[in-house]
């Protein structure tokens, strides 16, 4: 898995091992180039590996991601560092970049771990599970999630009490508290940025009650509830564990909203909400699902048909802007909204509300570079220096951008963008060899 | 021969299968089948950890082959063939059973039935596995040259990208000039360059490349051969309408044939029957060519109504899909009209504005500058009538409780979307499959988005479905990488799944030769007898020769009579 | 063959890997239901089916055999439609000789997105076969 640890020279550095970074790394590696793929998380696969099914085909997301992930992790031309971040990237002359990789200790020797989960059982510390978006808890000694790669335990040192229970429970002695952070200085010829996006934090819109009303959750949390690797075996609302039967989706949460600093459309929320609505109708045949929207943006291949299919299944679409959400004693929620069609203020009760949060740029990407400046666009996504004729080119020759790091896009577009970035990187490598 | 030993893996698919099919019951039902040494269920057969387990199982138990019962072989046949290979088995010893698309999902209404069917399907796969043996593929030379068909923005970019990878390109364009639709675009929303300038920039780059040959006025008229070596005949119209036929061999074909703009039917919203009704394409040319005042038919234009989704999103019509780019394109044109000419009022009769992503800024700008947006449903479309030299456009605006609104317009702009090329002769030539939207179809939107069902043929740009320029270029570069990766090693493996002749039974009647669409069979004298011979590198393994053979001397490898009959026995 | 399934007839479908299989897969994806006693054997091309296989299926107790033919979409050439048709005609003759109702073998061209058409075909074939079984 994490081979060639002492190797410091590669053809390409790919930052971010989500679907875009993985695709770009595979294209480069299949053409014969040596790739270093780094991801700050404990697993490769990015956000896609956490999803339930994908629109508009309803393929299971894990079924598409896991084979790619396993191809990446086995590829002889790809070296993977998880729990690692790149920094100090500097262009030297016309042909070379130097960079520093900061690798955080996992406190587990990956190659020896059999993911038997005995450390998880032994660990006395319980904290919120970030990979299940806080729906459930996990231990401080834990396997990130069931289909993670590398499939190995990790120690959450922030929360660990150093009691040693995991170490004693481990049958292969793979837990090692003496691991230190590693700094690896590398040389590469090209860089692909596939740093992805972050989701809008709905705590920034207090009137929706997220964080205060337990039955208001984010779409990413619902994604986990309906994923095959889901934390519960059914769909339930967090406050009382009741199976919901009147569910509302609130679209454009943190998107198309200048008041929270994000005026652009996130491009994916309409479709993922429609997808979730269809899956919920399938899982809970008696449930009502209502989607409150401003405009439905089903613009991609097969998307409009998917939207019509949802309508045909009985998903209720209401053109309305949500003003405020309040909670009743029984945990149900009252949505106050402006019905755009009638112009009137309306109220509707739901027993669970899902906020379809938008796509924001990850911060601090340009700070990874020294010397040359990596340009950003006015929304702080990575700037495209030739947006139409060379969409993956950036302000630095030899640095390319793949996927949502340059702006919101769905999975098919991210994969095409990764194809584009790797194509440019391969051309660059050939031209500069 | 020693007795065959195989392993069988039954996938839960995280519930996609196990919610409807009792996978443990399936496992138990097949565990004692003769050659099954080991049988397991697994949460995700395709996961890295299960793949590793499989390799270990194969090695530890010295298995001769494996069967995985999971999703469609279209998704994971290759995955598990690769697993077999990593365990030092030949990939053709692997057999796949599809118990998701064809059992759990198809029969989610009948769990017993689905389970029973899954058991039979796995038994049939085990039956096939008895016959599955190691096969070696033949290697053929791959020509490191790609034919790019269509020299619009996607074709030009693909050609340049391949050229940069030291791959020869023949760029074939039907028209006399390159650039396609983009060359006609004037101002663009994301840059200061015009479409024409972008095309000129790319075109001059193409001319500099020694390894790109550009053929304009040219069409592919014949295609023979297959991946690695397609033999194309190209007809080029030269001066004085003479034609020249050019033969060229390429290893891969990249299709970038683009789209047609939707032309409204006669009378559709008054098109062609009313004077002041034009298409968006014409409107864009109009605002580009005029200055100061916007004039049409000698009259100054002030009030413009744009009717969106003409020929798109028709639930009963031919085009059910959204054309993706028209909202942005229209709003952009309307903003230019407002800036460039005096006294312009824009009225947007739309069905929900879809300025996705960063394009939203244009919509916000348009709203901010006072453009009026009215919305209609498909079942209540705007009506147009004439009053003097004005067009009266009536709409029931769903944004204001279906209030009837009337606009007196000087000009009505019909916003048509993108439709597949009417002339699909080149697509038929290569037998490219089309989707429900009649655009070319990719193998899998996410796993193989630029490949087609025909090996060696990739698709780029709007011939696959509506795309804007950025999206077309991304797909063109992705397709170029794919075409390049097929050829970069200089050789390809051809499938060993071909027809074989039992020479003892054959006494040459010629029926097989007649049936073969690829000229792969010929007559041969062998040890004093006249028999049929199959050319292994030409045979494509379609099997058309097998049923016509009177003495039943022909079988297709992996689909022989004994295999098929034993599968039928297992299913019965 | 086991006990007769009362609800549904046993149907063997010969499908093709590139053309009709995707349609049958998509029927599953869309949860378009059809009788679970429909079994598919997939081949490269429908014009490679031997009449002896079809007769074997009847001998082994299948109620019906359905050829989901490539039709004009066949990747191996346009002659496929005619050749598959010829196989069906040939098999029909052999069925008559063996006193098997020729209507128990059906063929229809299935494109790669013909999911609904496939399901419709299966349901109507199933009804027909159940009716003749009673008769």
Short description:
The complex is a heterotrimer of chains A (433), B (572) and C (135). Chain B is an alpha/beta fold.
Structure write-up:
The complex is a heterotrimer of chains A (433), B (572) and C (135). Chain A has helices spanning 19-30, 61-74, 118-122, 165-169, 219-226, 269-283, 303-313, 411-431; strands spanning 12-15, 35-39, 53-54, 59-60, 78-82, 84-92, 96-103, 126-128, 137-139, 141-142, 154-155, 182-188, 190-193, 197-199, 216-218, 246-253, 288-293, 316-327, 333-339, 344-350, 352-357, 359-361, 369-370, 399-401. Chain A has 433 residues and is of the alpha/beta class. Chain A starts with 11 loop residues before the first strand and ends with a helix. Chain B is of the alpha/beta class. Chain B folds into four domains: 6-137, Rossmann fold, CATH 3.40.50; 145-258 and 421-488, FAD/NAD(P)-binding domain, CATH 3.50.50; 262-417, FAD/NAD(P)-binding domain (3-Layer(bba) Sandwich), CATH 3.50.50.60; 498-556, 2-Layer Sandwich (Alpha-Beta Plaits), CATH 3.30.70.20. Chain B is built from 14 helices and 30 strands. In chain B, the strands form ten sheets. In chain B, strands 8-7-6-12-25 form a five-stranded parallel beta sheet, with helices on one face. A five-stranded parallel beta sheet of chain B has the order 14-23-17-18-19. In chain B, strands 2-1-3-4 form a four-stranded parallel beta sheet, with helices on both faces. In chain B, helix 3 (73-86) links the parallel strand 3 and strand 4. Chain B is globular and about 90 Å long. The mean pLDDT of chain B is 93. With 135 residues, chain C is α/β, with parallel strands linked by helices. Chain C has one domain: 3-Layer(aba) Sandwich (Rossmann fold). Chain C has a four-stranded parallel beta sheet with strand order 2-1-3-4, with helices on both faces. In chain C, helix 1 (20-29) crosses helix 4 (115-134) and helix 2 crosses helix 3. The two termini of chain C are 20 Å apart. The model of chain C has no long low-confidence stretch (mean pLDDT 89). The interface between A and C is small, with 4 and 2 residues.
């Amino acid at each position: 898995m994490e081979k060639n640890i002492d190797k410091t020279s590669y053809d390409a550095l790919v930052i971010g091992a989500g679907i875009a970074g993985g695709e770009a790394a595979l294209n480069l590696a299949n053409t014969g180039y040596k790739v270093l793929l780094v991801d700050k998380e404990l697993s490769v696969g990015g956000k896609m590996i956490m999803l339930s099914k994908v629109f508009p085909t309803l393929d299971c997301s894990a079924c598409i991601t896991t084979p790619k992930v396993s191809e990446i992790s086995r590829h002889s031309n790809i070296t993977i560092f998880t729990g690692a971040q790149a920094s100090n990237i500097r262009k030297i002359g016309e042909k070379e970049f130097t960079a520093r990789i900061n690798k955080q200790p996992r406190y587990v020797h990956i190659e020896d771990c059999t993911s038997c989960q005995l450390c998880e059982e032994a660990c006395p510390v319980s904290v919120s599970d970030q990979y299940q978006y806080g729906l459930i808890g996990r231990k401080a000694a834990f396997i990130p999630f069931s289909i993670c790669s590398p499939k190995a335990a990790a120690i959450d040192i922030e929360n660990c009490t150093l009691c040693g229970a995991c170490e004693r429970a481990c049958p292969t002695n793979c837990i090692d508290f003496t691991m230190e952070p590693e700094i690896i200085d590398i040389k590469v010829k090209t860089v692909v940025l596939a740093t992805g996006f972050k989701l809008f934090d709905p705590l920034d819109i207090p009137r929706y009650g997220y964080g205060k009303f337990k039955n208001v959750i984010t779409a990413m949390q619902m994604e986990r509830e309906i994923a095959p690797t889901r934390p519960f075996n059914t769909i339930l609302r967090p406050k009382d564990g009741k199976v919901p039967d009147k569910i509302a989706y609130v679209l454009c949460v943190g998107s198309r909203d200048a008041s929270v600093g994000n005026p652009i459309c996130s491009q994916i929320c309409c479709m993922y909400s429609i997808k979730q609505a269809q899956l919920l109708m399938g899982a809970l045949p008696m449930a009502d699902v209502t989607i409150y929207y401003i405009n439905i943006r089903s613009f991609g291949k097969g998307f409009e048909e998917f939207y019509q299919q949802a309508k045909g299944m009985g998903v209720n679409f209401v053109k309305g802007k949500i003003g405020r959400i309040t909670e009743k004693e029984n945990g149900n929620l009252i949505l106050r909204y402006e019905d755009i069609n009638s112009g009137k203020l309306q109220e509707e009760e739901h027993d669970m509300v899902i906020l379809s949060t938008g796509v924001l740029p990850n911060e601090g990407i340009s700070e990874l570079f020294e010397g040359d400046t990596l340009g950003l666009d006015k929304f702080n996504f990575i700037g495209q220096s030739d947006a139409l004729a060379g969409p993956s080119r950036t302000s630095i020759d030899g640095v390319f951008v793949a996927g949502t790091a340059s702006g919101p896009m769905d999975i098919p577009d991210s994969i095409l963008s990764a194809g584009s970035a790797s194509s440019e990187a391969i051309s660059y490598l050939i031209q500069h060899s | 021969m020693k007795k065959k030993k195989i392993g069988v893996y039954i996938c839960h698919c995280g519930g996609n299968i196990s919610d409807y099919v009792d996978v443990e019951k399936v496992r138990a039902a097949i565990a004692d089948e003769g050659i099954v040494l080991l049988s397991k269920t697994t949460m995700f057969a395709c996961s890295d950890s299960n793949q590793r387990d499989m390799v270990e199982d194969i090695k530890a138990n010295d298995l001769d082959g494996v069967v995985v019962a999971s999703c469609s072989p279209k998704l994971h046949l290759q995955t598990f063939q690769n697993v077999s290979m990593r365990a030092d088995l030949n990939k053709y010893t692997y057999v796949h059973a599809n118990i998701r698309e064809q059992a759990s999902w198809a029969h989610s209404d009948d769990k017993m039935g689905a389970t029973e069917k899954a058991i039979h399907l796995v038994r049939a796969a085990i039956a096939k596995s008895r016959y599955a043996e190691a096969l070696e593929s033949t290697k053929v030379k791959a020509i490191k040259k790609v034919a790019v068909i269509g020299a619009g923005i996607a074709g030009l970019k693909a050609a340049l990208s391949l050229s940069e990878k030291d791959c020869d390109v023949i760029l074939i364009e039907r028209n006399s000039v390159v650039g396609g639709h983009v060359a006609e675009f004037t101002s663009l929303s994301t840059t200061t360059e015009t479409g024409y300038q972008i095309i000129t920039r790319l075109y001059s780059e193409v001319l500099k490349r020694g390894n790109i040959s550009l053929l304009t006025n040219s069409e592919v008229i014949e295609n023979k051969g297959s991946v690695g070596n397609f033999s194309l005949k190209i007809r080029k119209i030269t001066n004085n309408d003479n034609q020249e036929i050019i033969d060229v061999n390429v290893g891969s074909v990249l299709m970038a044939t683009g789209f047609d703009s939707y032309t409204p039917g006669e009378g559709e919203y008054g098109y062609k029957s009313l004077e002041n009704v034009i298409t968006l394409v014409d409107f864009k040319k109009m605002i580009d060519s005029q200055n100061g005042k916007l004039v049409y038919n000698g009259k100054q234009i002030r009030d413009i109504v744009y009717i969106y989704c003409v020929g798109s999103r028709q639930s009963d019509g031919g085009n059910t899909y959204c054309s993706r780019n028209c909202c942005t394109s229209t709003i952009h044109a309307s903003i230019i009209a407002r800036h460039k000419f005096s006294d312009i009022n824009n009225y947007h009769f739309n069905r929900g504005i879809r300025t996705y992503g960063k394009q939203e800024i244009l919509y916000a700008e348009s709203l901010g500058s006072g453009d009026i947006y009215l919305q209609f449903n498909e079942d209540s479309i705007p009506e147009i009538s004439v009053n003097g030299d004005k067009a009266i456009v009536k709409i029931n605006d769903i944004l204001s409780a279906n209030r009837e609104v009337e606009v007196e317009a000087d000009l009505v702009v019909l916003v048509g979307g993108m439709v597949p090329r009417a002339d699909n002769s080149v697509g038929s030539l290569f037998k490219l499959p089309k989707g429900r939207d009649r655009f070319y179809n990719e193998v899998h939107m996410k796993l193989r988005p630029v490949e087609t069902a025909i090996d060696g043929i990739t698709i780029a740009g709007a011939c696959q479905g509506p795309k804007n320029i950025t999206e077309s270029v991304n797909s063109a570069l992705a397709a170029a990488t794919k075409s390049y990766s097929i050829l970069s090693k200089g050789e390809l493996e051809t499938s060993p799944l071909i027809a074989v002749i039992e020479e003892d039974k054959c006494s040459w009647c010629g029926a097989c030769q007649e049936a073969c669409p690829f000229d792969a069979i010929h007559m041969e004298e062998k040890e004093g007898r006249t028999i049929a011979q199959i050319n292994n590198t030409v045979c494509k393994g379609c099997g058309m020769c097998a049923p016509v053979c009177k003495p039943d001397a022909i079988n297709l490898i992996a689909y022989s009579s004994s295999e098929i009959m034993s599968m039928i026995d297992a299913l019965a | 063959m086991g006990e007769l399934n009362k609800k549904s007839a046993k149907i063997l479908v010969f499908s093709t890997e590139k053309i009709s299989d995707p349609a049958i897969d998509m029927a599953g994806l869309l949860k378009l239901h059809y009788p679970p006693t429909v079994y598919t054997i997939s081949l490269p091309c429908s014009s490679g089916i031997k009449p002896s296989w079809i007769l074997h299926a009847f001998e082994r107790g299948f109620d019906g055999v359905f050829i989901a033919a490539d039709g004009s979409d066949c990747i191996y050439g346009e002659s496929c439609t005619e050749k598959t048709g010829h196989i069906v005609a040939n098999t029909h003759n052999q069925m008559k000789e063996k006193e098997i109702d020729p209507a128990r073998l059906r063929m229809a061209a299935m494109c790669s997105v013909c999911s609904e058409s496939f399901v419709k075909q299966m349901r109507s074939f199933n009804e027909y076969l159940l009716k003749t079984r009673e008769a």
